[in-house]
Write a structure and sequence with these properties.
Length: about 1100
């Protein structure tokens, strides 16, 4: 026999998932305990996520605090006594269906007003009894130990909240309080429960004195607080505080964006839930789900008071929701959660329906590690009927939950009910207050096959209000799930008559709770409407009859038939008063959903004889006396009635019309059935009034012009009336906008009134404009400028202008300024009273300071060309240049012979000058040399060059030398061109050259023998440099005989005289010669002498 006892099943609710809990509480009588562990709860969850409205009630059994505390609020590990309630009957009760709206499925609710206020539109609520008393009276606040409305524990909570929340105000007093107080004895060392606070004081009154407040006041052993407590208990502690703080929960300490009232910034908004739609629960906002947990000493007695009240007034209500069965001492929960919806109860599992997780939850001391042995028993075999379950659960230090998982195996054998028992042996645990160990018994059932009765095939009329479409599950794992083709998910659904227009089919898929079996079926809806027809019987009456019934007969009719008559009546029949003329009445019969449209006609015939009338026209003037007019009736019967259009009811009447008038008369027979309408005209002859006039145009604002109306015809005197109230035919008008003047003229007979509209137009002109001036940019201060003439367009042309704020009226303006200046040109239209201005700006361009930038200093050889340059940086542009050497360009080409400094002055457009200079140093060697002929071909050169360091000689005969003082030998005595180049260290060169002439040395023979013997046969001159014509610039020789006769002359230095004279040999004797020779290099030779021709025999 197992060492644990059987279990008792009770129910619980989850606030998060609206899940059903089945709780097994097991008690063991064995008192031998080795270890202390809190008894555990076993819960199987089935999830049904839906959204529903909250339900509220204070009807029996929820009308007593004893039931609400013991059977709703309390759990299984606490004993409760001495329950007392303070407040009106409507201030406390029971709520359910709040899982999707509030966050708690069901439980106890307290209110400062009526809990019925929570009921949403269309909700299911039942609240009766007395309501909250309103503002506090100072008595009956609650238990006497809690105080009165002006001095109590809740007011102390409000004061504490105000001191801890910036900007918050405390309540002046607490009203409409509701308090439930009781004593309890826990069996464990920790108590807990879940709650939610809600209020309609959000969003307007946070941080105000209307600070609704509530509290959970606990007193007893080990509890130390600051609030009052019942006699025999220490001071109470309030556990309704924001988690992790000592701040009480009020509308001021928890709020969100848009719901913070005068607090401004939201406080602790993570705990705040707005409820703007109020469709599921009618309250403005509430907190998130909160848990109160506090330590207790098992088996000792404690006091607990839950209290709520309005702050300062009783206008808006607040509420506190406490979760059902959540007030409990902590233990270990074992929570098996099957992965399907159970059919036969929370402790029944089915083969092949998935797995189950079993959670073991420690709710007491979790600081130490712990291992709890499990006892697994039952008729089911582990490994065959279900998967393996461990023999113990292990809690690590700090771990409050351990989980085991197993599955029920589908073995396809009909075995009946088998059991799994999971238990904790009494010998391994030690429990408080004499409690015993627990066990869990789970039944394993064979899975039931899914089968259906079948869906319906139904015939409907389109007028049927609704029709139920359903499918019926005969057997299977329930609850089954349903998926209809129209989206419905229940076993049946109602179709409204709006759908009965065509035959319809609905497909449904039914799936068992395990999700294994599925069946597909179809429901058919056939729409059949009956054939329908209508018939209207006709009728005949006389004029003396009151009327007749008008009817329509319907054959094979159906509901929803609508009848509409052309007379405006509706329905299948009505009574028609005598129309006195034969009349057709058309009826239309419709049936909307069947698409019927039937039409028939009811003819009501009136039997009555006709008659004839006669009238005569007449003609008058407006001054004629009244005349008689009449109507004559033939084929008459007595008692005819007459009705003239002017109201007269006799056959004859006297009239005096002022205008041509038509008179209509209606003659009706005695039965009032037949009527004849006749008419006559009394023509009134009248001379019509004629009026005319001309529009006027006001050219300038303020002008006054006459406006007249010309009148003719009609009868004087005339009555004239203008819409201005004036009565003369001519008025004076002035206006600033186009205005219509209406004049009406009536003659003395007032038969004809003529109306004329004349318009006083105000001349319109194009908009006055000034063609914008172009701004002027001056490059330099002080430069002259001029504007004008201005171009003015538009307006009336009657305008004046000014550049000087009307100090003068000139069209031109000019001058000179040193800074940027804006001038305003003004135009005023004297006629149109308009004016415009135009601004123009004279801008003085700003320039950077001007600097003259020049080419760098340099060194040159003499007369070496170089181009110096200069340019400005900054300045006003339009630059001019002036060099010290007279050049006037930015580029200055120079070739100085000696070192020079060239200065340049750059002048800009504004006269600003910048000066700079360039230094050009000339490095100038000087080539100088002399020479001396040693003879006709050998020459010594002496170098006298200055500032030179190297030399090059060109002797003119193809030979050169780099010696400083060379000696050169020519191969012939002739004129040579000798050049010396002298170089300095900078590469500058100078050259000097001479034309080297051989020395002019002449030998003149004193005699010759022209005898033809080949020896000394001619007279000629000999010498160095003499025979070279290149060296001789000019030559002349003249020979005379002794008598002074010229016998020979020549200008050729290479002449030869053969001693002949005039073709014959000259006489022997002495001849005188004169020689003049000029050579190059200014060498000259001139001499006289004699030459002798000796005797040939000598």
């Amino acid at each position: 026999m197992l060492p644990f006892s059987s279990c008792m099943l009770y129910k619980d609710k989850s606030h998060f998932l609206k899940s059903s809990f089945s709780t097994l509480s097991c008690v063991n009588s064995n008192a031998n305990f080795m270890r202390k562990i809190i008894p555990f709860l076993v819960t199987i969850l089935s999830f049904q996520m839906v959204y529903s409205q909250v339900s509220i009630t204070n009807q029996a059994p929820y009308n007593t605090a004893q039931y609400l505390i013991n059977d709703v609020f309390a759990g299984g590990n606490v004993t409760i006594n001495n329950i007392q309630v303070y407040g009106s009957a409507q201030q406390y009760g029971f709520f359910s269906g709040g899982g999707s709206s509030i966050g708690i499925d069901s439980g106890l609710v307290l209110s400062t007003g009526s809990i019925n206020e929570l009921c949403p539109t269309g909700g299911t609520c039942s609240v009766t009894g007395a309501t909250a008393p309103g503002n506090g009276t100072g008595v009956n606040f609650g238990p006497t130990w809690m105080g009165s409305s002006s001095n109590n524990a809740l007011l102390s909570v409000s004061n504490l909240a105000a001191s801890l929340i910036p900007g918050a105000s405390a309540a002046g007093d607490v009203n409409d309080a509701c308090v439930i107080w009781f004593e309890f004895v826990p069996t464990k060392d920790t108590m807990q429960f879940n709650f939610i606070f809600a209020s309609n004081e959000w969003p307007t009154y946070p941080c105000s004195s209307f600070n609704d407040v509530f509290g959970f006041f606990v007193s007893g052993p080990g509890v130390t607080g600051t609030y009052a407590a019942p006699a025999g208990f220490p001071n109470s502690q309030n556990y309704a505080v924001i988690p992790g703080t000592n701040i009480p929960i009020t509308i001021s300490s928890i709020n969100g964006a848009g719901y913070s009232g005068s607090c401004g910034t939201p406080s602790n908004s993570s705990y705040f839930v707005p409820n703007p739609t109020s469709t599921l629960v009618d309250v403005n906002a509430f907190t998130t789900l909160m848990t109160v947990e506090f330590p207790v000493q098992p088996c000792d007695t404690y006091s607990f008071a839950m209290a709520i009240g309005d702050g300062s007034d009783g206008a808006l209500s607040s509420f506190v929701f406490m979760e059902a069965n959540s007030f409990d001492a902590s233990g270990v929960e074992i929570i098996p959660a099957p992965q399907y919806n159970t059919q036969g109860g929370d402790s029944i599992l089915f083969e092949g329906c998935g797995s189950v997780d079993v959670d073991f939850h420690r709710l007491d001391n979790v600081q130490n590690a712990d291992t709890i042995p499990l006892v697994i028993a039952g008729t089911a075999l582990m490994g065959a009927d279900y998967t393996n379950i461990p023999d113990s659960i292990v809690f690590a230090a700090g771990q409050d939950t351990a989980t085991i998982s197993f599955s029920v195996i589908e073995d396809y054998i009909a075995e009946g009910i088998e059991t799994i028992i999971i238990g904790i042996a009494d010998s391994t645990i030690s429990l408080a207050c004499g409690a015993n160990g627990d066990s869990l018994i789970i039944e394993i059932h064979d899975r039931v096959p899914l089968s259906l009765t079948g869906s319906s095939i139904d015939t409907v009329w389109c007028t049927d209000a609704s029709h139920l479409v359903e499918t019926v599950v005969d057997t299977g794992m329930l609850p089954a799930t349903y998926a209809w083709s129209n989206g419905s998910t229940t076993a049946s659904f109602n179709l409204s008559n709006t759908t009965f227009t065509n035959d319809t089919s609905f497909l449904v898929t039914v799936t068992g709770a395990c999700g294994v079996d599925s069946i597909i079926d179809t429901a058919h809806i056939i729409v059949q409407n009956p054939p329908t027809s209508i018939l209207c019987p006709d009728d005949t009456i006389t004029c003396e009859d009151m009327g007749a019934p008008i009817t329509v007969q319907t054959y094979d009719g159906m509901p929803g038939m609508v009848y509409q008559w052309s007379s405006g009546w509706s329905g299948s029949a009505y009574y028609q008063n005598n129309p006195y003329v034969t009349t057709d009445y058309v009826v239309t019969a419709t049936q909307a959903c069947a698409g019927m449209f039937l039409v028939d006609t009811f003819t009501l015939t009136i039997d009555n004889p006709p008659f004839v009338t006669t009238t005569h026209n007449d003609t008058v003037t407006c001054i004629d006396p009244p005349v008689d007019i009449a109507v004559e009736v033939t084929n008459t019967t007595p008692n005819f009635t007459f009705q003239w259009s002017n109201g007269v009811t006799d056959s004859v009447q006297t009239v005096n019309p002022m205008v041509t008038t038509d008179y209509y008369v209606t003659v009706t027979d005695a039965c009032g059935v037949n009527s004849v309408v006749d008419s006559l005209t009394v023509w009134v002859i009248n001379d019509p009034v004629s009026i005319d006039g001309e529009n006027v145009t006001i050219q300038c604002v303020g002008d006054i012009l006459p406006m007249s109306v010309e009148i003719s015809g009609g009868y004087q005197p005339y009555s004239v009336l203008w819409n201005t109230g004036e009565t003369d035919s001519t008025i004076n008008v002035t206006t600033d906008s186009n205005t219509i003047y209406t004049v009406s003229v009536t003659d003395v007979c007032q038969l004809d009134t003529q109306v004329l509209d004349l318009t006083a137009f105000v001349a319109t002109y194009p908009d006055l404009q000034v063609i914008p001036f172009e701004d002027v940019v001056l490059n330099c201060p002080g430069r002259p400028f001029e504007f004008g003439p201005a171009q003015v367009v538009g307006g009336s042309s009657d305008y004046v202008v000014s550049w000087t704020n009307w100090n003068d009226q000139i069209d031109y303006f000019g001058g000179a300024v040193d800074t940027t200046t804006t001038f305003t040109f003004e135009v005023a239209d004297l006629c149109n009273l308009d004016s415009v201005t135009s601004d123009v700006t004279v801008t003085i361009r700003e320039h950077d300071p001007m600097v003259a930038v020049v080419s760098p200093d340099t060194m040159l050889c003499p007369q070496e060309p170089i181009q110096l340059w200069a340019y400005p940086e900054g300045g006003g542009g339009n630059y001019s240049y002036s060099w010290s050497n007279g050049d006037n360009d930015s580029l200055n080409a120079v070739a100085p012979l000696s070192s020079s400094v060239y200065s340049v002055t750059i002048t800009d457009d504004c006269g600003t000058r910048a000066v700079n200079s360039v230094s050009v140093e000339v490095s100038a060697p000087t080539a100088i040399f002399t020479h001396q002929h040693l003879d006709a071909t050998n020459v010594i050169f002496a170098n006298g060059s200055e500032n030179a360091t190297s030399y090059t000689w060109d002797f003119g005969d193809g030979n050169t030398s780099v010696e400083e003082d060379p000696w050169h030998t020519y191969n012939s005595a002739q004129q040579w061109y000798v050049t010396l180049w002298a170089y300095d260290d900078h590469g500058c060169v100078d050259s000097a050259y001479v034309i080297l002439d051989p020395p002019l040395r002449i030998f003149i023979p004193s005699a010759f023998t022209p005898d033809g013997d080949g020896l000394n046969d001619v007279f000629q001159l000999y010498g160095e440099g003499y025979k070279s014509n290149d060296m001789i610039k000019s030559f002349l020789i003249v020979i005379f005989d002794r008598w002074g006769n010229e016998v020979f002359s020549s200008r050729d230095a290479n002449f030869q005289w053969d001693g002949s004279y005039k073709g014959s040999p000259a006489s022997v004797g002495v001849y005188v010669y004169k020689v003049r020779v000029e050579g190059y290099a200014r060498q000259k030779f001139e001499t006289n002498g004699t030459v002798t021709i000796p005797s040939y025999t000598e």
